[in-house]
Write a structure and sequence with these properties.
The complex is a heterodimer of chains A (about 500) and B (about 110). By secondary structure, chain A is mainly alpha-helical. In chain A, about 65% of the residues lie in helices and about 0% in strands. Chain A is built from 16 helices and 4 strands. In chain A, α5 runs parallel beside α8, α10 packs across α12 and α11 crosses α13. The longest helix of chain A is centred in the last third of the chain and has 32 residues. The relative contact order of chain A is 0.15. Chain B contains 2 helices and 6 strands; from the N terminus they run βαββββαβ. In chain B, the strands form 2 sheets. Chain B has a 4-stranded antiparallel β-sheet, with helices on one face. Chain B has a two-stranded antiparallel sheet with strand order 3-4. In chain B, α1 runs antiparallel to α2. Classes of the chains: A mainly alpha (about 500), B alpha+beta (about 110).
Chain lengths: ~500, ~110
């Protein structure tokens, strides 16, 4: 049944791709199209014979991308770990920190072993639109001389830089999931889940959304892209790949594992909102690496992503506080911090496409929708998404992913889409309604793919090794029972 | 001798301590306590989760005094700790059977 569904999606993709090509022709006919910045700096080269050389690597790009890589790692440890850790009860603080830290370590190794190859190659795979093969497993063939494409013709990064930058994304995404079932999961089964989920959900979705041959190679091989990239779906820094992917996996996880003992009958207040504040602030700073780094170059598009990451987040934080002032009569720190994260999530797919003005609107909208989900929908439906991974990451990610189709419109000051199948990349004609539909299809594909994979993995683990500790262990807290230590000894 | 227990608002502690020092109270024991009375507690909201805490933080002062001073101590605490709002606290006065200073072995009023 899954395969049937995929075939259907593939057929849809093919038809959409044909439509994209048609737009491209129109664009060629219309000689009034402004040349993109990419085109301005590009070298005109015969696509078939193109070979990137070491001279196409810019030291400024390399420096920026390595700094951005370290920033994104900081988002996982310590930022996400502290953000989540502060929100749980004292007795489970270390379990959350340990889960995040271990997931980062394991994901980095899995990325080296087979992740990069599955996500960013298209050879040696039975379904090259869905995931790559193992030709670059253990970074085979990747060395200091190999290069990775950027979004500009004739501009390259050392492949190792690209491997590392993307590695940090593979580290943070599974770490996001643990918030949904914090305080009630066994450690080792969780790590097994992460390895399986990276392999079957994260790498394929990353491949479908982000894999493409690069601007100098696409004209000769216009079909050498991931499925959603080929549809024309826009996801600048990972709204679908990171946030919707993790948010849906979290929701499935908390449904399979069930609510915490005492959920809704005893108080479970956060044990340290100070930690949460530190974590949220470091997330924001790290997110500049995440979003602006996703430009892959040190240029004006990186700056655009940077300012959008700044202002959309600011708007979201303010709006959440205002809503709380109206609804609860008091603006809370946790509320403002939640708004900040919701804004960061929502602007992620749109960071390099939106005008700062529309980015502000997108961030504000995400706060409103996420507030509604974490306060009203969650209480109505009764699922125990402990730290609101679904309510903020999936919901905020969906708002952002669909909103990207609107804010990317050049008529609203957006960047539109770039036609990379032309010998030199140039702006394509923008159709907002069509783009929004494409975004919705990309969201739907991600939700279904990660939903099915996550449900299968969680259920297998639940009925084999078990996912949930005993009631006794859960009551005592995971720190002392699972890890043999306490967060605070005083 | 009397043993006086006063439950007051935490921010009033310094004022009460100074006022009691001024009328000759030589020592007291202070602890942070929680409880409720007519003031019913407060609601905490963490995202969608509402918790009403019915225990509020207070400060408990314990003072042992001679019979002569007891009435003045009670009056002083009442005057300095009052904000004329609910939650100001209560003062309890108990008869004290004996007192002993551990260092010297003195007992009675001289031990206070």
């Amino acid at each position: 049944m899954i395969r049937k569904l995929l075939c259907g999606a593939g057929a849809f993709g093919a038809s959409l791709f044909a439509a994209t090509a048609a737009w491209a022709q129109e664009a060629t006919a219309a000689a009034t199209e402004a040349a993109t910045e990419a085109a301005a700096t590009a070298v005109a080269a015969a696509p078939a014979a193109f070979t990137p050389t070491a001279e196409m690597v810019n030291k400024g790009d390399v420096a920026w991308m390595m700094v951005a890589t370290a920033f994104v790692l900081m988002m996982s440890v310590p930022a996400l770990a502290l953000f989540y850790g502060g929100l749980v009860r004292t007795k489970n603080m270390l379990s959350v920190l340990m889960q995040v830290l271990t997931i980062v370590c394991v994901a980095a190794l899995v990325w080296f072993a087979w992740g990069y190859s599955m996500a960013f190659t298209s050879t040696g795979s039975p379904f090259p639109k869905l995931f790559g093969g193992f030709d670059k497993a253990f970074l085979a063939g990747v060395d200091v001389t190999t290069l990775a494409a950027t979004f500009s013709n004739g501009v390259y990064l050392p492949e190792l830089v690209f491997v590392m930058f993307q590695m940090t994304f593979a580290c943070i995404t599974p770490a996001l999931i643990v918030g949904a079932f914090a305080e009630r999961v066994k450690f080792t089964p969780l790590i097994l889940f992460v390895v399986g989920w990276l392999t079957l959900a994260y790498f394929p979705v990353a491949h479908m959304v982000w894999y493409w041959a690069g601007p100098d190679f696409l004209p000769a091989a216009p079909d050498d892209t991931g499925l959603l990239w080929g549809w024309g779906a826009l996801d600048f820094a990972g709204g679908t790949v990171v946030h919707i992917n993790a948010g849906i996996a979290g929701l499935i996880g908390c449904l399979v594992i069930g609510p915490r003992l005492g959920y809704r009958s005893e108080p479970m207040p956060p044990h340290s909102l100070v930690m949460t504040m530190i974590g949220a602030s470091l997330l924001w700073i790290g997110w500049f690496g995440f979003n602006a780094g996703s430009a892959l170059e040190s240029n004006a598009f990186a700056a655009l992503a940077f300012i959008n990451t700044f202002v959309a987040t600011a708007a979201a934080g303010v709006v959440w506080a205002i809503i709380e002032q109206i609804v609860h009569k008091k603006p809370s720190l946790l509320g403002a911090a939640s708004g900040v994260v919701a804004g960061l999530v929502a602007i992620t797919p749109a960071a390099g496409f939106a005008h700062p003005g529309t980015a502000i609107i997108l961030g504000a909208l995400a706060s409103v929708v996420c507030f509604f989900f974490v306060t009203t929908v969650k209480n109505k439906l009764g699922y125990d998404d402990s730290l609101d991974v679904f309510g903020i990451h999936a919901v905020g990610g969906i708002v952002g992913a669909i909103g990207t189709g609107v804010v990317a419109d050049p008529a609203l000051g957006g960047q539109g889409w770039i036609d990379y199948t032309a010998p030199v990349a140039k702006a394509g004609v923008y159709d907002m309604a069509g783009q929004v539909m494409t975004q919705i299809w990309a969201v739907g594909t991600t939700v279904v793919w990660t939903g099915v994979v996550s449900a299968a993995l969680f259920l297998i683990l639940k009925y084999t090794v078990g996912l949930r500790p005993s009631a006794d262990v859960e009551t005592s807290g995971l720190d002392i029972t699972e890890h043999g230590e306490r967060a605070y000894n005083y | 001798m009397k043993f006086i227990i006063a439950i007051i608002k935490p921010f009033k502690l310094d004022e009460v301590r100074e006022a009691l020092g001024a009328i000759g109270v030589a020592g007291m024991t202070v602890s942070e306590v929680k409880g409720f009375g007519r003031q019913k507690g407060q609601t905490e909201i963490y995202r969608g989760a509402e918790y009403s805490t019915n225990m509020l933080p207070k400060v408990k002062i314990e003072v042992a005094t001679s019979d002569d001073l007891a009435a003045q101590v009670v009056e002083t605490i009442q005057q300095t700790a009052s904000t004329e709002a609910i939650g100001d606290g209560k003062i309890f006065v108990l008869d004290l059977a004996s007192a002993l200073r551990i260092r010297t072995g003195e007992s009675g009023d001289t031990a206070l």
